[in-house]
Amino acid sequence: MPLKGDVYIGLGSNVGDSVGNLERAFSSISGISDFLIPSSVYVSSAAGFTTQPRFFNAVCRIGTYLSPFQLLHSLLEIENCLGRKRAFTNSPRIIDLDILLWGDLRIETTSLTIPHPRIQERGFVLAPLLEIDPSIVHPYYGVPLKDFYDLIPDVDKPSKIAF
């Protein structure tokens, strides 16, 4: 049976052992996918609600037989199992998992939007995404994501960490 799609998932954490939280999330995601290719971990300032600790971010590429809504449900279950509490929009969090891209798929519902909104504005998403595949083109705009990343001021670009 062929894979329904190669999917890119964004991961973020800024509470507790953030790198450990990302590693646990990678492990959990690998349990619901055919393969998993992780990016390095990047650190950046928080976006939105900025009075909080820095974020540690990564992206993984997975292959899955799940539908987009089944995958969303599975990612929300992983967040819950890892201890995610939803206090308010852009609040500090143990783990945040987002479906970023799914090939050229476009979905816009109240519960799921693919490609993820504002992906083209966020260096902390683009840097690890481009590390995995520098040739990705935005499905709506038809523009390489690298072009969007190049427009982000250096001060707003994340730093890759070694651990």
Structure description:
The chain is of the alpha+beta class and 163 residues long. The protein has a single domain, classed as 7,8-Dihydro-6-hydroxymethylpterin-pyrophosphokinase HPPK (Alpha-Beta Plaits, 2-Layer Sandwich), CATH 3.30.70.560. The protein has helices at residues 18-30, 68-81, 123-132, 145-151; strands at 5-13, 35-38, 41-44, 55-64, 96-102, 107-108, 113-114, 159-161. Strands 1, 2, 3, 4, 5 and 8 form a six-stranded antiparallel beta sheet that branches. Strands 6-7 form a two-stranded antiparallel ribbon. Strand 6 (107-108) and strand 7 form a beta hairpin. The longest helix is centred in the middle third of the chain and has 14 residues, at 68-81. It is globular.
Kindly report the CATH topology.
Alpha-Beta Plaits
What is the rounded distance between the termini? Answer: 38 Å
Compute the gyration radius: what is it? 15 Å
- Structural shape: globular
Q: How many beta strands in the DSSP annotation?
A: 8
Q: What would CATH call the class? A: Alpha Beta
Q: β content, as a range?
A: 25-35%
Structural class: alpha+beta
**What oligomeric assembly is this protein in?**
single chain
The name of the CATH superfamily reads 7,8-Dihydro-6-hydroxymethylpterin-pyrophosphokinase HPPK
CATH architecture: 2-Layer Sandwich
Query: How many domains make up the coordinates?
Result: 1
